[in-house]
Design a protein that fits this description.
This protein is mainly β. About 5% of the residues lie in helices and about 45% in strands. The radius of gyration is 33 Å and the shape is globular.
Length: about 900
């Protein structure tokens, strides 16, 4: 992330493992609280041991647990209560006095600038035990940090001439500092003349204190082999003179032009312009000897710092904490405001500990403001600390005990996607190979009934580094085989509950708790697209996904469900539903799969296709216009010839430029003026081919239904790809009355974190289709009016009276009716399960499960809370009238004076 995306400098440059799981683990009688690797299942935070921090100044910060990463480095987890809700912070505390651990700066690929790489990629390449993202950088430039950098004791980049930019450094004797630094350097020619060096390995930018408009104007910069790109820097509006120096001697001079080469390992290139170029032409001729000298200077004290005396240094942004207190920002924070994921560095009062801080923003954490980050840092004991790049760049990777590679510690703002950045801070161990100390179990923390778990037994030595256990024989045992069974080394979920899984080898053992999920933990269950064709021989893909109440998304093989087929005979195997035959006269079929009683449903319709083509843009006869919500946003929307995979077809292309806008900005491709294009049939999902621009913007579609209500479809929360791919988006949760109209396809650039997303770009759309369940919801359903009266065992349907065996009643302000007679009148059916006290109601495209005494309903595979529950009276099940009838597409009217209920469909 950069400070802004405006044009900069004289070059005029334009501005997973899914998550780490935590559990309590007992090893050799010692209680450890820490992360245990698994398959992506998230353990709820109420499973943590919450420990208030005795020294917390705010009372908002609670320590949840910690784990040793390696000798001298500990990963700690905190909960922070902020203005927007609860945030989670992951903090690596590094003991700078421990001889076996150190901090250093990771850089791009192969340790070079202009190569950008993810935090995880840099950690893997360099063997880091842990790491976080580092300095700010111009996202539109080559890929070099804005601040200074020292890696492995070598100066790689110098501080920029910008106000209030701090850096974090550690000397070779382990002393940390957070200061503002300046750079001073000199080039001395063989003839005794000299010229000032302006900096090292810098992209172009606009200086703020020197009075110059352009960083490289009339200046001399040194570029080393750490700069991989051929151009130094790119997109130059001025013509440089470049001088190649090898082994202290000038070997090439390129007058008024770049050398068009990478910097060799045995030398460096001096990039000069204006007055500096005049000096180079006169004094730096081929064969001349050249000497360079430079140092850093601390702004606050004026003292010189020899870069070779530093172990590491990385640039950042504003100072946040000083002398253990929140301090005024040293630089404007307008462009990095809001509640975001955050990264920071700091150290303790005694200078023994460095703190590497990352605050999450994801489904489990709301993020923090800069002010809240200051409070958090103060609470955990930071004496002096500064801000690093944040938002979508915030990434932490850590290595679990026994593992050899650092993996993503938590989901980033963009899920498991790790942004490519210019540098990061790595934690490294130099400990020798030790003796075996303990073991950990890695594997599933949660299982489903019938699901096989994958577990491994890993060792670590007395320095907490991986220990090879490949030749160790392990015995597995379950504390409750009825819940979790173990047979031949295979661990399997048997029934809902919790069991302790123990792995033993000799006198050493490790345990972990495994929970088998039951229906009570599930919030939704879906099978494929939820629709299909009711025709003999039809085959429908039905991969099953369960979503739990605590946010896990777990794939289940369809064979693990108990299936029931209504209206047809069929079978399910290997995630595929096959229709063997269709019952006579049936137009709507139901395939109901149950996991521990919780239902998923597939609706099948006779003669209806599962997917219908809707718009391929080959013969568009209606107008398409570009519009926006902000006057400064410009662009075009038009049907054009496609490219790439769509080169032989026409596509709808949307170009946008938001550089002159502000706030939340939209770029719309508007279909058919304000009218939109009509979608006649009810749709459960949309499919569209999209050419992405990797802008990280939000992609949406807007519909207007038959009642004039607007509905929005999220096609992609983040456009994080280039080129064509097919997007499928669920529409089943949208309450749309048809016919509806697709009015707009559009890109959104929200205000928060706007500096991270591109304000210019272009996307394209092709082959829009909707999944339409055909006749589901209409066949066999009846229209008309029915009336019932409280306490009377009679019912009038379209004016014809009929007897019923249970009278409607009221209880606690709710009206209850025998559902059987409602379905007889309007179409549909109900099934009663006495064992589970569950009534299942089917009508058209609705399947509803209600349980006696439970204030909830499972509607088309999704659990919903209700205010009332079904009851049993005199052997007849009565259901809440308004809840059921409105979900089944009926209207209800109540006449208070006569106690009469009128139903219409």
């Amino acid at each position: 992330m950069f400070l802004s995306n405006r044009k900069q400098g004289n070059e005029k440059v334009d501005g997973r493992r899914i998550a780490k799981k935590w559990a309590v683990l007992t090893l050799a009688g010692v209680l450890w609280v820490g992360p245990v690797a698994g398959t992506g299942a998230l353990i709820p935070l109420n499973g943590w041991m919450s420990v208030p921090i005795a020294s917390a100044a705010s009372g908002a910060t609670v320590k949840l647990g910690e784990e040793i990463l390696t000798s001298g480095a500990t990963l700690m987890k905190y909960r922070f209560k902020g203005s927007k809700g609860t945030a989670l912070a992951d903090i690596i505390r590094v003991d700078l006095q421990n001889p076996y651990v150190k901090l250093d700066v990771m850089t791009g690929k192969n340790g070079q600038f202009t190569t950008r790489q993810s935090t995880g990629g840099m950690a893997k390449e360099t063997g880091a035990v842990a790491g976080v993202n580092g300095d700010y950088f111009n996202t539109s430039s080559e890929g070099a940090p804005i601040g200074g950098q020292v890696s492995k004791g070598v100066l790689m980049s110098t501080p920029s001439d910008l106000t209030g930019m701090y850096a974090f450094a550690v000397t070779k004797d382990g002393s940390p500092m957070v200061e503002q630094f300046t750079f001073e350097g000199t080039v001395k020619a063989g003839d005794g003349s000299s010229f000032s060096l302006a900096g090292m390995n810098k992209a172009s930018y606009t200086p703020e204190t020197s009075g110059s408009s352009y960083s490289h104007s009339n200046a001399m910069y040194i570029y080393t082999s750490a700069w991989k790109a051929v151009e130094r820097p790119k997109n130059s509006s001025t013509t440089p003179t470049e001088v190649l120096v090898q082994n202290g001697v000038v070997t090439q001079v390129s007058s008024n032009a770049g050398l068009n080469m990478t910097v060799p390992q045995d030398g460096y290139i001096l990039r000069t312009h204006g007055k500096a170029a005049e000096y180079a032409k006169e004094h730096l001729t081929v064969g001349q000897t050249v000497e360079t000298s430079y140092h850093l200077r601390v702004k606050s004290t004026g003292s010189e710092v020899d870069p070779s005396n530093l172990q590491m240094m990385i640039g950042g942004h504003t100072i946040l904490v000083n002398d253990g207190q929140k301090t005024s920002y040293s630089r404007s924070t307008t462009s990095i405001g809001g509640t975001r994921a955050r990264t920071a560095l700091g150290y303790s009062r005694d200078k023994r500990y460095a703190y590497v801080i990352a605050v999450e923003k994801n489904g489990n954490s709301v993020g923090v403001s800069l002010s809240e980050l200051q409070t958090l840092m103060q609470d955990i004991g930071v004496w002096k600390g500064m801000n690093l790049d944040g938002g979508g760049s915030t990434t932490m990777v850590t290595r679990d005990l026994g593992d050899t590679t650092a993996e993503l510690t938590f989901n980033t703002e963009y899920g498991t996607e790790q942004r490519s950045i210019v540098n990061g801070v790595g934690v490294y161990t130099s400990a020798p190979k030790g003796t075996l100390k303990g073991f950990t179990i890695k594997g599933n923390k949660t299982l489903l009934i019938g699901q096989t778990g994958s577990y491994s037994f890993k060792g670590y030595d007395n320095y907490y580094n991986p220990f090879d256990t490949s030749k160790v024989q392990v015995t597995w045992k379950s504390s409750n085989p009825a819940v979790v069974s173990v047979s031949g080394g295979v661990v399997k979920g048997a029934k809902p509950g919790t069991a302790t899984l123990t792995a033993s080898s000799g006198s050493a053992s490790a345990t972990t708790k495994v929970t088998v999920l039951g229906a009570d933990e599930i919030s939704s269950l879906t099978a494929g697209s939820g629709t299909g064709s009711l025709a003999a021989g039809a085959k429908i893909a039905v991969p099953v996904t369960a979503k739990t109440k605590d946010g896990q998304s777990v794939s289940i093989t369809s064979d693990a469900l108990k299936w029931e087929f209504i209206g047809f005979k069929g079978s399910v195997k290997d995630n595929q539903l096959t229709v063997n035959s269709v019952d006579s006269g049936v137009k709507t079929g139901y395939a109901i799969g149950r996991y521990d009683g919780f239902s998923a449903v597939v609706f099948l319709s006779a003669g209806g296709e599962s997917t219908s083509d809707w718009e391929d843009f080959e013969n568009v006869s209606y107008p398409i216009d570009f519009t926006s919500n902000v006057a400064g946003v410009t662009g075009t929307a038009a049907v054009v010839q496609g490219d790439g995979d769509h080169a032989n077809s026409k596509v709808l292309e949307l170009n946008y430029d938001m550089t002159n806008g502000s706030g939340k900005m939209y770029a719309y491709a508007q279909l058919n003026g304000t009218s939109g294009k009509t979608l006649e049939k009810a749709a459960s999902s949309i499919s569209v081919d999209v050419r992405g621009d990797k802008s990280l913007n939000w992609l949406r579609a807007e519909l207007e239904d038959a009642q004039g209500q607007t509905a929005y479809i999220d096609l992609a929360k983040v456009i994080d790809w280039n080129g064509w791919k097919t997007i499928n988006a669920d529409m089943s949760g949208l309450k749309i009355s048809y016919p509806a109209k697709l009015k707009r396809l559009y890109v959104v650039n929200v205000a928060e974190g706007q500096d991270e997303r591109a304000k210019t770009g272009n996307v394209a759309f092709d082959n829009i289709s909707f999944n339409t369940p055909g006749t589901v919801g209409t066949e066999g359903l009846k229209k008309g009016t029915a009336q019932m009266t409280i306490g009377q065992k009679s019912m009038s349907v379209n004016g014809v009276a009929t007897a019923i065996d249970a009278a409607p009643m009221t209880r606690n302000g709710a009206t209850y009716v025998p559902i059987k007679y409602v379905l007889d009148a309007f179409g549909g059916q109900a099934k009663w399960n006495a064992g589970d006290q569950r009534i299942t109601i089917m009508r058209g495209g609705v399947l509803m499960d209600l349980t006696v005494g439970k204030k909830e309903v499972v509607l088309n595979g999704k659990r919903q809370s209700t205010d009332v529950a079904p009851i049993v009276l005199d052997g007849r099940t009565l259901v809440p009238l308004r809840l059921v009838s409105e979900q089944l597409g009926m209207t209800v009217k109540w006449e208070q004076e006569t106690k009469t209920i009128t139903l219409q469909s």
